[in-house]
Amino acid sequence: MSTEHAPMLSADTLALLQSWQGRSETVHDLITPAPLRGLSATLDRQDPAVAPGTAVPPLWHWLFFLPHHAQSETGPDGHALRGGFLPPVPLPRRMWAGGRLQWHAPLRVGDEAWRTSTIDSVQYKTGRSGPLLFVQVGHEVHNAQGLCLREEHDIVYRPAATPADAAPAVQAAASLHDPTSPLWQRTLVPDAVLLFRYSALTFNGHRIHYDRDYVRQVEGYPGLVVHGPLIATLLLDLVRRHTQRPIERFEFKALRPTFECADARPLQVNAQAVDAQRLRLWAQDHEGWLTMQASAQFL
Hints:
With about 300 residues, the chain is of the alpha+beta class. It is about 20% helix and about 35% strand. The chain is built from 6 helices and 12 strands. The chain has a 10-stranded antiparallel sheet with strand order 1-3-4-5-2-8-12-11-10-6. It has a two-stranded antiparallel ribbon with strand order 7-9. Strand 11 and strand 12 (about 290-299) form a beta hairpin. Helix 2 (about 35-40) runs antiparallel to helix 4 (about 190-200). About 35% of the residues are buried.
């Protein structure tokens, strides 16, 4: 999308959105086994039976503390209507752009836990596609024993696509191929069933992940969009398939959308050792484009 098609945010609108900085909410949840069993099956894992005391694997806490908005409170994109905990950003396209996490202690099945979330910052920038608004949310997850993890979650809002400029926007998204030979590598096909099951497990109604007509005609993408958190989960799942060393830190950044286009296009996740404690991780689509880069540090 060219900037002349993208309305800029006014100073008053930006001031309103930035007034959300500092807002917080706390959500309580019981760590139950069923979501863990569901994600294990979705990722094609052969995990031991989940029992009381089983530790929640890294990033699988995203199965808990989920928002449960009423059907009447959802917007046209399948997300909740704007203006609740998150600011009422008028830009219609919303994506999870990345995050940073540090684990302090494991969550376990049977825990009564709570997550406190705070709007850390609301920042406005102008890119090639027009205005971009970045919202950073900080999370702290506790159980009865204390702090389990801290997380910073980056959300980006973008203008709507139009049929005339959607294709060039996708083509220009990234141009970096990663030549590094990986230490570990896995190739899989993120088909519509995988995306549906992950959406269901995370109570994610965003239509870009399951509604092809919507994603093509409204968002302007060529096919269903693979969830950024799912790709991040697949990156750490690759690590867990090769070592049981506990992860202390993880950060990731989405660089380019990954699409499911109903023609068995593969996704490749890769890991490379930086040193004895750190891994460099990345994901590539079927054309070899770098779509997500990440790093992990062992405890």
